[in-house]
Design goal:
This protein has 341 residues and is of the alpha/beta class. 50% of the residues lie in helices and 12% in strands. It has three domains: 150 residues, Rossmann fold (3-Layer(aba) Sandwich); 74 residues, Orthogonal Bundle (Helicase, Ruva Protein, domain 3); 68 residues, Arc Repressor Mutant, subunit A (Orthogonal Bundle). Strand 7 and strand 8 form a beta hairpin. The two termini are 30 Å apart. The structure holds adenosine-5'-diphosphate and magnesium ion (MG). The site of magnesium ion has 3 residues, from helix 2.
Amino acid sequence: MSTINDLEPLKNEYIPEEVLDRETESEQLRQALENRQNVHVHGPRGTGKTLIVKKQLESLGTNVCYISCQRQDTQYKVLRKTVNELTSKTVGSGHHTSELQRLLKNQVEAVETTIVLDDLDFLLLNDGDDLLYFLSRIEADLGLVLITANHRELRDQLEERTFSTLQPQRIGFEPFTGEEIYKVLADRAKNSMKPRSLRREALTYIASSTQNLAAALTWLRISAQQADNVVTEAHTKRLISEALQQYTATQLRDFTQHHRLLYQAIEKLESDQKSSVRTGDVHLKYRELCQTYGQKPLTERRTSDYLKQLEQLKLITSEYHYGGRKGKTREINRVNPYSNT
Ligand SMILES: Nc1ncnc2c1ncn2[C@@H]1O[C@H](COP(=O)(O)OP(=O)(O)O)[C@@H](O)[C@H]1O
Ligand SMILES: [Mg+2]
């Protein structure tokens, strides 16, 4: 027996026909796009930023290009992907940045275009704002939608010259309430699970345990997959660490083996010592794991950058501590998206 008719609606990348709530944000976005204004969409993970933007793009009458900067985290990569998507050309990797810039400029000068840079934080961390500066200077009907997974002002993350030409309108996304999460989960379950295969208390439990809709969906999916014929509250409770593991794996899917080893190092240190984890220990543990898995360890400089990316994914937090025998140290903790429990 199984509880599932169709797994698709329980997947994170599934695009539902209808979005629930978020009317204000959707409307603000629609107007900005129509008025050809640049937009900065901001808010924590799992608040529906990507979905709402994609939905609004569906009905937009311009050329559209959606880029996730988690994968494309340099100016060069973004330019290449944008040119490939917007033109029918396939440009290889042998081109110079300036040539790609020229191709893109020609294209957007010819056709009204909207470019979405999702998870822009990753591009900014890795490569600064040169690309945005270039885009902001193009004199054509080009609309930009910039999405970041934090509430910080873009003004503080960009050079003044870039920000002042972009002047994006801010649209903020706040975490979902328990009721909203419940509603979305129930809607997905209706399209995915067999009748009477999900207890109300199980849904309530998940919805009250997290504000991150992606994490909630992962938990429901795992519970539905593992249950014999009905998902109960006890059932979901038992599966929380498996859900966490799955959520983390999905977040790290587009990253390297070394990102995963670093995360694993932190996980191990946390369970070994029960106290806070220092960056120095993380690097040691990571090297140990590399040896175990026959991987050549990366330099500490690279792994420090990777740790920052884990932080941007909200999988870990890191905090400086001053004083004590060692002077300034950095402490790392894993983030549990189900921490309302
Ligand atoms: N308003 C909504 N109605 C229905 N499902 C939603 C809504 N907002 C988000 N979701 C679903 O929740 C998950 C996380 O949303 P996502 O857009 O990826 O969040 P973010 O980009 O803010 O991290 C996705 O599976 C998405 O389909
Ligand atoms: Mg997103």
